[in-house]
Amino acid sequence: MGTKKRTNQNRVVAVVGITFALLLGSACQSISGSGDSVQGTVNYLENLELTDDAVLRVRLYDTSYADASAELIAEQIITDPGQVPIKFNVEYDPDDIDPRATYSISASIIETGDRLAFTNDTAYDVVTRGNPTRVNMLLVMATPPPDPTGQWNESNWRTWVEAEVPVLGAEVVEYHPEVIVFVEHLQSTMEGCVRRGPADVGFEVRGSDIFVSVTLQQPPPTPWAIPCDDDVVTVEADVRFGDSLVSGETYRVIANGVETVTFTAP
Fold first, then answer.
1. Spatial CB neighbours of 237, under 8 Å, sequence gap ≥ 6
2. Do 145 and 48 touch, CB atoms closer than 8 A?
3. pLDDT at res. 219
4. What is the DSSP string of 207-245?
């Protein structure tokens, strides 16, 4: 009897093990996708939390013809999606797919009051013509959230502003035929934080002091601004003084309020 009881237990364990394995295999297949869905994530750069009223809409379109309205093939609507990155899985009927056609995925986040908060401004082609069925989408802000201070609105929140950069130091790199000073400063590498190109440099000589200004075009300091100082590099800006200096005079260079280097003009 004892042997039979152990045998029955073993059978039960075996059945449970097989059932679990089948369920696990089914779950893994669902996660990896059967080829009849477009999967991925949506993200954005702004340091902004979504509310519980947010809705993510991800849609698969036939975008084969530029001069015609895109045909909606499938969509997924996710209410209260949480915070980015947000995963999506848009299932579609393979019978609706023409391998000769072009298909694109688009995403938008709708906030309280039907405000279009974020959308994609980049085309993400998928499914056919060698394009993937998994994409990581980066959305851009379409409409900023309400600002109770009234400082930021539709007309000014996108306007870039000229801002001084953090200065680390400076050194004189050349005396002839003119004095040239390299000013080391920090610059963000975050997307959308700085307009590309060299910094704007200016100076003013006041007696024996030279006040140097080093600025970059940056987004305005809105409440939802990107955390631009999360990733920075050291950059050098050159200051050329030409014939603005008096020979034999000793000068002190103050860049963006930081005292950096002292030198004597040749």
1. 182, 183, 185, 198, 199, 201, 214
2. yes
3. 82
4. TTEEEEEEEEEE----TT---GGGSEEEEEEEEE-TT-S
b (16+ CB within 10 A) / e for 60-74: bbbbeeeeeebeebb
pTM over 0.90: no
pLDDT in tens, 22-37: 333 333 333 333 459 9
Looking at residue 6, what is its pLDDT? 37
Residue bearing the bigger pLDDT, 67 or 77: 77
Are 262 and 250 in contact by the 8 Å Cβ rule? The answer is yes
Question: Among residues 52, 53, 59, 87, which one has the least CA distance to residue 73?
Answer: 59
**What DSSP letter does each residue of 102-135 carry, written as one string?**
-EEEEEEEEEGGGEEEEE--S-EEESSTT--SEE
pLDDT of residue 216: 93
Terminal CA-to-CA distance of the chain, rounded, Å?
Answer: 108
The pLDDT value recorded for residue 200 is 92
183 and 235 Cβ atoms separated by less than 8 Å: no
Report d(CA 3, CA 231) in Å as an integer.
67
